[in-house]
Structures are given as C-alpha cells and as structure tokens.
Amino acid sequence: MKILVNGAWRDTRSAELTRALEELGYGSTVVSTAVNGEFVPLAQRAETRLADGDRLEVLAPMQGG
Amino acid sequence: MLPIYQTQLRSRLMLGTARYPSPAILAEAVRAARAEVVTVSLRRESAGERAGQAFWSLIRELGVRVLPNTAGCHSVKEAVTTAHMAREVFGTPWIKLEVIGEDDTLQPDVFGLVDAARSLCAEGFEVFPYTTEDLVVAERLLSAGCRVLMPWGAPIGSGRGLNNLFGLKALRAHFPEVPLIIDAGLGVPSHAAQALELGFDAVLVNTAVAQARDPVQMAGAFAQAVEAGFAARQAGPIEPRDLAAPSTPLIGTAFRG
Q: Closest partner residue to A61 among B19, B48, B90, by Cβ?
C-alpha cells in the first residue's frame, strides 16, 4: 500500500496506524498524527485504518517563535 | 506576578526557541533571560533523524513552561488541527494561535484568527492569539473566549520595535484589565523596555536574541530591559511636554533682581 507520509510516498504493509508508524520507524517517538488533514489522537491510532493514497502527517516538537 | 489564565508568572519576558546557533546556546539564552515560558512548534518528523525528540528532551530539562504555536498555518482548519496535535504532544491547553494572512508581512488573518479562537476556546484551549493592534478584532477575540492578547509590535523578525505607538497605546487604554503581551518585531532591549513602560504586561522575543552576535548576552540584556520597563511603569512616568520646565529651583537664583 502506498501512502503519502509527510509529503513523500512510502510503502507500508500494515493498514493499522500504530503498526504503520512502527514500520515507518516512528516506534518509540513522541509524535502527533493526522490522516487526510484530520487529527488522530494517540488513543485512536490502533483503531485507525489507512487506505491506499492516504496522506499521513507525523509531527514532532520543534523550535518555534 | 502576571496572571495568565490559571498561571501566575514572575517573568515578563517570554522567549522563542528558533534560529539559535546551537541547542546549547538556546539553553543558555533561556537561563540568561530568566524566562519561564518558551514558545515551541510542531514540524514534520523524519523517522531517521529524530530531531524533534532531541529538541523536546532539551526543553524538558530546562524546566520551563511551553507555549506551542501554530506558526505557518494559513487556514482555520490547519490552525485548529495543529492546535489539537500540539495539545497532545506538549500536554498543555495553551496555544499561541497564529493564522497567517499575508506572506510578506506575516500579518495575521484576523478573520480566520477569530474563527479559530472561537472554536479552540469552546474546546477548552487557553488561546494566546497573535493579532494586530485593531480594537475591534481584540474585542471579538475576547468575546470568543480569549483571556490574553498578543498584539504585534512589528512584522515577525523585522526588529523594528513598536511600529504603531498610537494604536498600541489605544489598545492598552481600551482594555486595561486584559493581559497584553507584545509578540513579534522587537529588535533591541529598549523596544522591550518601551513596551513595559507603556503598560504592556510582557513581551515575547525570538529573532532579536537568537540572531544576535551573542544570543546569551542579548537574552540577559532583554531581561534587564523588561525589569527596568516594568519598574518604570510602576513608578509612574511623567508626561512629555513641548517646552522646557526647569529642574533646578528658581527661587534664590544668583544675579537676579
């Protein structure tokens, strides 16, 4: 399955968001997620299913003004 | 003490965390500024680099409060979604709400700002809106549920100081009880002192410190300026006048009469 992760196309085997994040290398990181522009809280990641062509945003703390 | 939502702040200088030469210099600058609140942001995280994880560890070690922003958001939807994501990652209801309306000046889209503020306040966020000095917009933001306002001094990163003194003074006079924090555009410590002398409650500074030749020394200078400005406000400054008023008493002046 191809999904757009932070603007770049990536292949994932898992459709379940938590597993897909692990597969993509975000396993133990502090991140927040959105799928197709909608916020997906941590508590809902396990039940969130990804589909081919979905846009996944993975955001982390960063410097800001 | 400065009451901001349910928090009492001692420091009236807030510091941004972007554009420092290194993480170590950022940490030193936060300490030199004696800042209690620093602004942070959310960005796309690369799984390989994990830059965000290292930054977050550094901020937690500093023991300061974080004020996440929605920088870079150009629509209500983006700003509201970013606010939700920030609340989860940073574990705070505080959000510095930015909805950018124009790319050359980075001035806020005040229409989108009010919409986003209304939505976020209703969802329990404690919103710090980055706004202009416009009184009507300020009134709308307060009606939306904001309990603090962050008017700009000048465009972000411009270092020009308080661009519209008349407008900012009118804002201060019109909302004497609302915490007002000057956000953006300050260049040197005297700008910060001026803001506090005019009765603004605090300032947020980033570029002026981070891009100074010595950010740590500049952070300390801003801290002193903010303290001086606040003390001066408490002391009651004199009103400017157009003509001279002799400071030395005239009674008993030699060679007269």
A: B90
